[in-house]
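Researcher: I'd like a structural prediction for the single chain below. Treat it as a standalone chain; there are no partners to consider.
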Amino acid sequence: DARRPAAAMAPNVLDSSSDDDETPLAARAPAASADAARARENSDGNATIGDASGDARGTSAGRAIATNGASSSDDDDVPLAQRAVGAANGANGATGASVGAPGRPTAPSRAPATNFFAKTEGATVARPPIVTPKPPIGGGFKMSKRPVAMPAKQSSRLDSSSDEAPIAAGRPDQGLDERRRREEEARARERERKYREEKLKKRLEKAARADRLSDDERRRMLKKQKRMREEKERARSEAPKRPKTNRSETGAKKGAVIMWKTLEHKGVLFPPEYEPHGVPLVYDGQEVKLLPHEEEIAGFFAVMKDSDYATKPVFVKNFMDGFKAALKNGPHAFITDFSKCDFTKMYMHFLAIREKKKEMTSEEKKRIKAQKDIDEEPYTWATIDGRREKVGNFRVEPPGLFRGRGEHPKMGKIKRRVVPEDITINIGKDAKVPEPPAGHSWKAVIHNDTATWLAGWNDVINVKDWKYVQFGATSTVKAESDQKKYEKARSLHKYIEKIRKDYKRNMMSESKEMAQLAVTTYLVDKLALRAGGEKDEDLADTVGVCTLRAGHIKFMDDNVIEFDFLGKDSIQYLQQHKIDEVAYKCLQRFVQGKGPDVDIFDHVDPQKVNAHLQTLMPGLTIKVFRTYNASITLDRLLKDTKKNDTTLQKKATYDAANKEVAILCNHQKGVSKAHDAQMEKLAEKKKDLAKQVAEMKKKTDDKNQKKKLAALKERQSKLAIQMNMKEELKTVSLGTSKINYLDPRITLSWCKRHEVPPNVVFTKALIDKFHWAMDCEMEFSFVQEDAVEVKPAE
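Model: Treating it as a single chain, here is the predicted structure.
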């Protein structure tokens, strides 16, 4: 073994010989390691030629080379003469063994590997290279004793683009996917760990808070939590499951919620047909008997002859334009000048009818009303999913002149008569369709089970708007809608601090759009402004926060801004507010270089603002802000009510709080014509009471003097409160906020705590509307207990 060449002593892992088959694996490993070590020692230098042992080794090496050469096709291109010389020289010379570097075995390369002979003793002999198969990469090993036939061509799967490159380089790293999978698992484990730590932290904080509670407080808290869980479970189990539906022939929106399965109703009630009265119109001093449709329009103005509207130029112009259009191409087309029209005779005719109605006895009035109720009874009810529900506005509005609110540009336009051909009926598929009046037909009959309106038509003045016949305010459909609205406003309190931090940060943004979104959100939060939207030129120039123009604001000292614009229904918004310094500077930047008619927020609109708000809270819109700010303001102000006050004093406290909400939402009204007369009567009553008190003080001999004096003074106190509130509320509308923006549970729980009957602050209609809130708890608070108390926007 010591004399064997190094190549022969290297272990061959690919050896197909069966010589070692009987050797156990445990015994092969040490032997292979020892052979490899001896092979490395012998391959460090070249062998010396000359001695007998060297000749013997050369002869053995030559035989090995000859054997290997015979089994390989890599040296087919070498001349036979050179192969013979190489074989002969192998008997006289020594060959150096070459051991491959450790690595993975690969297929033999077809490029020949040159093996140079070492120097002889005498002189250097140039010998041709002996071509042998290139050993596989992956460590030294001896070739098999028996020839192993190698395939002429590797399969396409193992073939490499370069014959010299390893096969592994021609395919992707199989360990890359595994490494990525392990990294992803590690990140997932880290996220899970952080989540568990955060959950544990919250649990510990909750436990710490609970430790600070007294035993009674802890029992109340646990009892309330249990009750809330039971209520949620009961509501979840009782709530009907409403499946989703796709758009169909009903006109429903894609993915809308099905609201009903069956719906039946009697349609709408039309006003009576016009009955001509024959009273002439005086034009330029001459009586003109108009045609029925002309007479009807003239009567619209005659009944308003003594109203304030009849003195407004816009109202008169719009009426006359419509009146001339009705007279055109007729026998009375010559009536073109309003100043020559005298409606006095028509006015006196309608005034006589009005006075005649006033002279009717109560029995006659009751009989007429009873007959009217019988005629209207079928239209007042609808059946939805087997439930009989009250219908709201089932009457079609009669024709007349449009009035509008404030300085509306369309006031005075003629509202024509709505006919069945204008109306779309929404009803169940299996229900009987209401019969239209004789000679008419409905515009359309649909079965939209995702909507709860019963009938609808385009408004005759603002044709883009739709008027609907809805369920009444006392119906369960409306009650459910109201409750969802107020619950959404309550949930805003959980997010309000986050929203305020967001807009305060974004107001300093370099992006103009982001800064404008932040300032509009701030103004909606602080001032409860409406959204505003694009208006047609023929509509009233009413604006909201998104459509404010540079001429609508005036910068004053100490970060105070004066707002002056027309809000909804053309009601003027004229208020001064001290705002945040950053918002003040942003508004100055937004209006810089703009004329008074240019929009301040020219990079945003209501859609963008609402889309931004919904990234902060699901379902949040500008309108939700108004409901939230109105309700939380009332809830906060009612906490100042004194328990020892009288019922009238408590009502005054409630009205004062309601007034603040109305001012916040800009709910204004015009001063009533009867206001001055009413105040004069109250002043006379005040003088009379003062006179009675003075006389009672003189009656010293009266045994009940003190008791009577106390009663008179109490009456004086009540009268003073009544006069004061009447004067303060003469331009403020309290009812709008009660109906649409104030959570009724705030008012009803306040009534329960302070023993105030609900009818003191709510009308009968509101009590019926908010029947769902009557069972609210005495300690109800608009701010949810699990929400964090925050201060209002500064």
